[in-house]
Structures are given as structure tokens and as C-alpha cells.
Specification:
4 helices, mainly beta, two-stranded antiparallel sheet
């Protein structure tokens, strides 16, 4: 049970196969819309600070007493990442390199003990060296924020990025965004071992636009098109069901911030009296120069 909890708690960082489909065409934007497109500039470096906290609670029946026993595992991640705009083609597609400059992870086990890795601590930094201060991802992203190509990935499966985009959203086909405007993005997620057996699941991500204080706010809601037949099959899919808001600076033409969360409860997922609970919060902010 402990192994399973640890696996699910770390799922946000586990590579899985995914295939992105083109966003559905958006309706004509209403009055009051503002232009919203990424304005890539070769040589520019965009820096973001990320924190993510995840808690997994699993209730099972004790083999001897048949009474419910709940275990909990928590994961905390904090990092700073930089996107270096290496070039922009004549179609407005940018080639970006991502580098992580600092990282701290803490995994609190169900028994209460913790494992911490902090790049600010010299001995621990050695264990994180392969992820730090060197490009670990090279991707091509267009002016809508769509992932066009992953040229190289040194940190797991490149396909994961099609499910969780580099900048967490895509802008609509229309060049503008207005309050109340909606558009969609569909993607298919394939679960390879140990999370699955190669089965695929279709998701829809719905976006709702807003304009406030000089920023475009975009509501995000991720849902499964068709839920698996059993609750147990839903367990590895729960971490993809992000909701919340992301923010875009239309003046600068850049991703600004994100406030996303997942919270789910699957009662009786392994029989009467069992329960799976998952909760994760993702916060990302641009680091202004």
C-alpha cells in the first residue's frame, strides 16, 4: 500500500504517453476583446517560480481486523525554471530551451519520515546535478501556446508535454480573448506501465476567458470524456484533472502565472470501506527582472 501511495503522489512528475489534438475552433469573439498572442523574442529568457504540493490518502481494510486503515503520503516540490528563446521562425513558432536553476523536493512517507533533496545543499545538489543548470527540454511552441514539436527531452517522456502543456494552456483560434469567451482543447493520454497497460483515455480541457487589471485570465477545467468502468481504473487519471486559472499578459505577450488544483475522492475504489483521496495545488509565477 505504501508503494502505491508513493507512486501516485509522484505521478505529477511521472512520464506518460499522450497525444494532443488541435483545439476546437472558437466562436467569433465578443466586443471588448483584447489581442492575445505570445510575442516571442529571440534571445529573451523567461523565468518562472513553481511550487506544487500533493497529498494522497488511501484507506484500505486491515487484513487481520478488517477495520479501515488510512495512510497518507505528501510531496512538496519547489523549483525555478528558465525558458530561453533560441529563435523564432517566420510563422511565429519559437524554439525554447528549458533549464531548471534550483530545486527542492520533500517526500513525507506514510510512516511520518521525510526524504528531502535541496539543490542549495552541496551534497544533495550532486544528486540533482543532471537536472540543474543544463537544458533538459527543447521544444517548439507557436503564438497560441500550442506545442508543435519536442526536439529533445532529457527528463522523461516528451509525450507528457502534450497533456500538460509547457505554458499550461492554449489561446483561442481567434486572435483576441474577451470575458465569457470559451474554447476547448482535446488530448489523449496513454497509460504505460507501471501506471497502466497501454490503454488510452480521452480528455477535454475547457477554457473560459476574462480580462482584468491588464491581464487575460483563463479559467481551466479538465474532464474525462468517458470515465473508466471501475473506480480503480480512475486512480492514475485523477492527477490530470486540473481546474483553476492561468494568467496571460497581453501587452508583453507572455504567460504570467497559474493557480491550478486537483481534488478528488473515490470511495470504495477497491471494495466496500476503501477510499482513495488525491489533492494537489500548483502555483506558478513569472519572475520579473
Amino acid at each position: 500500500m505504501v508503494r502505491r501511495s508513493a507512486l501516485i503522489a509522484a505521478l505529477a512528475l511521472t512520464p506518460v504517453a499522450a497525444h494532443a489534438q488541435a483545439p476546437a475552433p472558437a466562436a467569433t469573439a465578443p466586443a471588448g476583446a483584447v489581442p492575445a498572442r505570445f510575442k516571442w523574442k529571440a534571445g529573451e529568457v523567461l523565468t518562472y517560480k513553481v511550487t506544487q504540493q500533493t497529498a494522497v490518502r488511501e484507506t484500505s481494510l486491515d487484513e487481520k481486523t478488517e477495520k479501515p486503515v488510512t495512510t497518507e503520503a505528501r510531496t512538496t516540490l519547489a523549483l525555478v525554471k528558465k525558458w530561453d528563446v533560441k529563435g523564432v521562425d517566420d510563422k511565429g513558432v519559437a524554439t525554447l530551451e528549458m533549464t531548471i536553476t534550483s530545486m527542492k523536493t520533500e517526500f513525507r512517507k506514510p510512516d511520518g519520515t521525510s526524504v528531502v533533496r535541496d539543490s542549495a545543499v552541496p551534497d544533495q545538489a550532486k544528486e540533482l546535478a543532471s537536472f540543474l543548470n543544463t537544458p533538459i527540454l527543447t521544444a517548439r511552441v507557436d503564438a497560441q501556446g500550442k506545442l508543435i514539436e519536442v526536439k529533445e527531452s532529457k527528463a522523461g517522456s516528451a509525450a507528457r508535454l502534450h497533456a500538460e502543456l509547457p505554458f499550461r494552456f492554449v489561446l483561442p483560434e481567434s486572435v483576441t480573448v474577451a470575458t465569457g469567451q470559451t474554447w476547448d482543447r482535446a488530448f489523449t493520454l496513454k497509460l504505460d506501465p507501471p501506471l497502466g497497460t497501454g490503454e488510452s483515455h480521452e480528455f477535454t480541457q475547457k477554457y473560459t476567458g476574462g480580462v482584468k487589471d491588464g491581464l487575460v485570465s483563463i479559467g481551466v477545467e479538465t474532464t474525462l470524456k468517458t470515465a473508466p468502468k471501475t473506480l480503480a481504473e480512475q486512480v492514475p487519471l485523477v492527477p490530470m484533472l486540473w481546474t483553476g486559472e492561468v494568467y496571460f499578459n497581453p501587452t508583453l505577450g507572455r504567460y504570467h502565472a497559474a493557480r491550478l488544483k486537483v481534488k478528488a475522492e473515490l470511495p470504495n475504489h477497491q471494495g466496500e470501506g476503501t477510499k482513495f483521496e488525491y489533492e494537489s495545488a500548483y502555483v506558478e509565477d513569472v519572475v520579473e527582472k
